[in-house]
Amino acid sequence: MHLGSQQLDPPPARGASTGQDASPVAEGRAASAAHPQPDRVIDLAWMATLAWRYKWVMLGVIAAILAVTMIAYLLAQKVYDANVVLALDRNDQQIVRTAQSDRDDVIDSPAVDTEVQILLSPEIARAAVERAMLHTNPGFLRAKVRNATGPITVEAATNLVRSGLTVERKGLSYAINLAYSSNDPQVSALVANAVADAYVGGQVQAAQAARTVDIQQLRTRLDQLRGDVLRAEAAVAGYKAAANLVGASDDNTVGQQEMSTLNTELASARADLAAAQGRASANAGDSGSVVNASPVISDLRRQVATLEQKLAEQSSTLGPNHPDRMRTEAELASTRASLNRELARASTGVSQDVRVASQRVGALEGALGGTHGRLLAGNNASVRLAELERVAESSRQLYQTFLDRYRVELATRGTEKSKADIISRAQPPTLPTSPDILVYLLGGLIAGVIAAILLALVLEWRERGIRTRTEAEEFTGFKVISSLPDIGTMDEPDFHKGEPLSVPDFLVHNRESPFSESVRAIWTALRIGQKGQLARTVGLTSSIPDEGKTSTAIALARSAALAGRRTLLVDCDFRRLGTTLALGLSGKPGLVEVLAGQAKLDDVILTDPASGAHVLPLNSAAAGNFDIVQSDATTALLDRCKQFYDLIVLDIAPTIPVAEARAVAAMADAVLMVVRWRTTPRNVIRTALRELERAEANVFGVVLTQVDTRSSAVLGEEMAYYQYYYSRTAPN
Length: 732
Fold this sequence. Notes:
By secondary structure, the chain is α/β, with parallel strands linked by helices. Helices cover 57% and strands 10% of the residues. The strands form two sheets. An eight-stranded mixed β-sheet has the order 5-12-11-6-10-7-9-8, sandwiched between helices. Strands 2-3-1-4 form a four-stranded antiparallel β-sheet. α3 packs antiparallel against α14 (437-462) and α12 runs antiparallel to α13 (323-411). It is elongated.
């Protein structure tokens, strides 16, 4: 469709600002200021991003290292530990206390540690070898001796047993754990049980040997003590005969017995004398105890009292010569005379008792003195006799003690037991103790994670492209206008990657896809067709070829045209003719012919059937005229087109390899730098921006192309939100 066949009315005024009054990089620097660069520090979010970016590589490294670790585990020599648990008995369970049991130490904490050292001693190991015949056991020799051809010496087998033996106390208890290590589980259990049996059996044998020695020593000592007792008793009997000492009772002679009897009688006589003297003293008057105790005296005193009372009554009424009064006085005198006679008789009896008791005491004292004299002569002999008897008694007691102990030792022979019990015998282990598969797995996992992280860091360090919007803005200093997803990563069935118009055609047929939304974001950011439109001529360039520049330019023109914006797409790539070839317009007159005056603009402008956008192609035959594009004619042409179009899209050649591309970029109101996601080297981007700045091009921003939607979703790019929104939009 030619423009000459239509009347092109100028568009209504939609804002006079075109952005040309700004400096070439002013907006980019403003965007950089609006998004300050954060400090380059490694944080958790960055590490999570890095891990997700290289997750398959990292998982592969971890899996490879784990596989190598498991191979190393399978090839490593296995070591099996068999365990025996021994318990020391702190209670004395001897049937009868013996000399041997008396010598046993109390089982305390130091004693347990001592038993541990005993279990590790060469004697126990040797006893185990001899008990189980380990030096001739084929299994033991195969497990412990390399290239064994026959039996080995007991000493060599003892050293092998000690080399694999481990004994330790279980915490603070009285239990001991005995373990033996070997590459054969059967041998581990065999040796561990043999050592435990040797230890327990050795204690019993030691107790039996000690008891045999005790019995022999007791027998010898009893023979000596028996002779000592006989000699001591003979000495006692001989001294008694020589000193004429005859035992009357257990320990007393006849003289001692007689003196004891006299002392008893003398004490009794002195007690009687004291009692008589007391009575005599108490009866010194008429009120003594003897007098008071006499019933006759008591009766007489009552009569006297009665008569005295009667006389007193008569005296008050009768005269002195009255017969009754006189008769009463006579009776009173007679009664008093009788009372006095009784009192005298009582006093005479008490005195007689005192004389008799005194005479008896004197007689007994005389007899005791004679007996005492006789005993004094035998005192020296008694002292010597007592000494001999003590010696004899001591000999008898010592002999009896040893005799009792000898009988006990004989009676308890054969009842010896060990002070340690085996509470858990060793069983052949089913799993090896070393190497530990968990340690191998943990070590392999740690090594794999470290290697994966290092590899990810190396790959990150070697990464030369731009990965995120933030990274692009921080590096270039310009805002990212949009990120165009790689449609091949969106799982779209009707997309045929590799065709020239595959991306623009997809936009036409999928106008509500995230890709179409990303393209609309470009002309929306430029306010195309809106009040305050920022630019009418927008140039799309790249640093180097194959950045997706042409596809982006065609998609941008089609998107704006489909939205009702009057759009013109101009192919300015004089070397590759990207737009012209992609739309199948090669060989037809175009931009060069118009600039050279060989054709009119209305005659060469074509219409894109898919979107209605107008296209100004390049004639491949005239594409070699590179200087004409830098002329004022190009500027005039663009100014003319601005009167008829809302948006003019310039498909400009790459900036670095094509010199005229910088001149064309300087003629555009705004330039968009197309950067391929994770592909375009950073130094190339920097060089291209520097060249555009020197050409005084107005770089408006950066467009990222071919962004992997799966990675961008993790990185937090807008593709994630596009997918989230569109995946929940109900179909019309």
